[in-house]
Every structure is written in C-alpha cells, then in structure tokens.
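Methods — Computational structure assignment.
A single polypeptide chain was analysed. Its primary sequence is given first, followed by the predicted tertiary structure written as structure tokens.
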Amino acid sequence: MTLHILHEGKHDKAYFEHFLKADLLKKYNCTKLKPFKYTTDASAKKHIKTIESENGKFLIFSDADFKNIGTPKPKNYKDLHKYLCEKFEILTNSEKLVFVVVEEIESWYLAGFDQVFCIKNKVKYHKNTEQVTAEMFKDLRIRPEQTEDQFRNWLIFNAKHYSIDHAKTEKRNNSFIIFCDAMGF
C-alpha cells in the first residue's frame, strides 16, 4: 500500500521525506511514500478522487492560516477534519485520511532540535516554534552568506539529531502535537 502526501511545496515534501518518512511508513504499514504537489484546492480534489479509487492512504498537508477566510480556526483535530472534508469535498472514511495542517512548515523543521543542539550550532532556539514564520526562519541561518535553502539542507543533514519525542514532550509546536496525536506517534 502507498501513503500519498498532498503538499504545497518542495519544503513540505523535504520535511516529510527526511524527518518523518520512516515513522509514517511503519505506522501505516505502507511500502512507499508518494508526494504530490498541489497548487489549488481543485487540483487537490482531483488527486484525492484518484487516491480514493485506489487502496491507498493519504495525508493532506497545507499551510493554514485561518485569519483571512472568515472561518474560526478549529479547536481540535475532529473539527479540523470536518472543515477540510467539506473544503475538499471528501466523503472517504477517516481510516484512509489524515489531515495535517500547520501555520508554517518551517516551525516544524525547528521543533525537534533541542536547545543543546541549537546552542552548539549557533542556531537561535525557540522554546515555542509555532510563531516561526518563513521570514523568521531565514533569519536563523548560521552564517549571513548562507541561503535559506542551504540552512534547510543543513538541518536535513543533521536529521539524526531531530527528535519527535522532544518536540512533543517539550510542547514546542501545538500543530505538530495535534499531528502526532492524530497519527498515533
């Protein structure tokens, strides 16, 4: 069985492939992870219909700021699931579907690195990474000449120091905790 991940950009894809892939494949007893970049809700809906006809499971990953859509931010995973099922016109059962929504993927990149690692490597440590935006992430680079992509690749290179348990137990990012609870991590 394949685990499909619908995502918005290359940084989302890289995060799942380098930090969570092994855990996701074990959890869902899948043989492979298949990322799919969607650019509009319509393209996501179309791809979901294809996946629903196969025997696969899928995650939908999206930056979600509920500030500009006139809808209050869901208070829990169940409300979020309902909202997104309506948005993407999904009728599938919940065993095949998990929604993953964060404010910014960059906040998840940082959540699993502990303070010791950050201090040792001169990366600014955020006790709570929820408010870290893409613009703030750029300012966390180790060297001024380093690009944002180089910094991200450096974090990926150091993925062995990334801990899901640290991110959860230290409560570094609420959306990541909601994701872990929904995934059963």
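Note: Strands lie at 2-7, 32-37, 57-63, 97-102.
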